[in-house]
Amino acid sequence: MATVPRFTERSTAPDGDDVHPVDRLLPPGKLIAGGFQHVAASYAGVVAPPLVLGAYIGLSPLEITFLVGAALFTAGIATLLQTIGFWKVGARLPFVNGVSFAGVAPMLAVADAQPHKRDALPVIYGAVIVAGVLGFVLAPYFCKLIRFFPPVVSGTVITLIGITLLPVAFGWIQDGHPERPASLTDLGLAGATLAVVLGLRRLLKGFLQQIAILLGLVVGTLIAIPVGAVDFSPAEHARLVGFPGPFHFGAPHFAVSAIVSMCVLMLVCMTESTADMLALGEVVGREADEKVIARGLRADTLGTAVSPLFNGFANSAFAQNIGLVAITRVRSRFVVATCGLMFVLLGLSPVFASLIAVVPRPVLGGAGIVLFGSVAASGVNVLLKAGLDRGDNLLVAATSLGVGLIPVVSRTFYDNTAIPSTLKIILDSGVSAGCVTAVALNLLFGGAGEKNPPDTPAVSHPLAPPSEQNR
């Protein structure tokens, strides 16, 4: 096997002791460049839910802009809780936390239940607060489910995370209009960005190779300017400074039906975050054990409970950034903490936030193919180490992948009024549906509690340096 060159990171240890790459502090220039790269990769995911909800309930463009700023601000707080943390809060892994898109459907349902849709936000915020508090209380118990995630289960779930994210990249290539075919311009921009990213990864070395995704987005945007695919209008009327004042849309209301819906969503988000932490643990070479997962879930749920104070929504881990960590091999959590700080600043300055929005979606889509595909490849690597030829592992993986792909292939598959709305929230999430199936089948076939099959080495990410394999 060819040796993968190691990147240079400065240790935080004053005595010069060896420090795990996750805990190493990079120089300021690398922190800023790496943090901005994570912002670029996750920006669209953070702003999409408030854009959809704001338009659905009839908010004005100025109010929607405010809602987007609040989402960025609260995503920054949640990311800092996850990467830096305090007490028993925060996984201390390079995790980006942001608004969960899984919450869009139940939030729209809450809006439909109100006499006036514009009155939905206080009800949504009240439900999110209760769900966040419930999740925080359940975190130390929920993390014990880790014993039901042996490699055959975790590998299946990690693969599903990558596969379910790929349609997001395809939607970006279609410029956010999946109902129509991608134009030649869209395909050209996505293909050019993908080619630039791959070329830079192949030709560059050291730090420049690590920020190939960021450089690819810049080059792709520059290519898009002459063809008229860059929209600068978001920056024209944006304010320089804007603080998301507490309870801008009114004090929270607590409606039982909305609370039940959001609590179910919280459990789904906790399941997905657990799977994401397992995936990231494989990528960075630090096992996500019960304690790590408990701290990570506390960060997720505390961030969720606090977000409505600043007009934000439920937060969860962003799987797309796992792909970025895998591609760049920059595992420092302080890089992602810098991303969180940038989100906070973007939330406080709408004009700077709008500058990120000028990156054309097809350009993001081209880079997304690499990012999300790498997550799926990581899951396949875990499955291979799990031993698909052993026992019923192949049957567990195959069935779970099939169930998890149903909502990916057909978004209307479960649009049946006979299916309870709470169950539909789980079924509509490919990761949650596949995860539940994998855990259930593994238990059914007698695989409970088996962390690593006999004679199977500890799993490491295929891009990890040889010296850290099986760490």
Automatic annotation (TrEMBL):
InterPro entries linked: NCS2, UacT-like, Xan_ur_permease
Membrane-spanning intervals of the chain: 40-58, 64-81, 93-111, 123-143, 152-173, 185-204, 211-230, 250-270, 334-357, 363-382, 394-413, 425-445
Protein location: Cell membrane
Keyword annotations of the record: Cell membrane, Membrane, Transmembrane, Transmembrane helix, Transport
Annotated region described as Disordered, given as residue ranges: 1-22, 451-471
Record's bilayer topology term: Multi-pass membrane protein
Membership in a protein family: Belongs to the nucleobase:cation symporter-2 (NCS2) (TC 2.A.40) family.
Record PANTHER family: PURINE PERMEASE C1399.01C-RELATED, URIC ACID TRANSPORTER UACT
NCBIfam families (UniProt xref): ncs2, NCS2_1, pbuX
Protein name: Nucleobase:cation symporter-2 family protein
Native source organism of the sequence: Streptomyces blastmyceticus
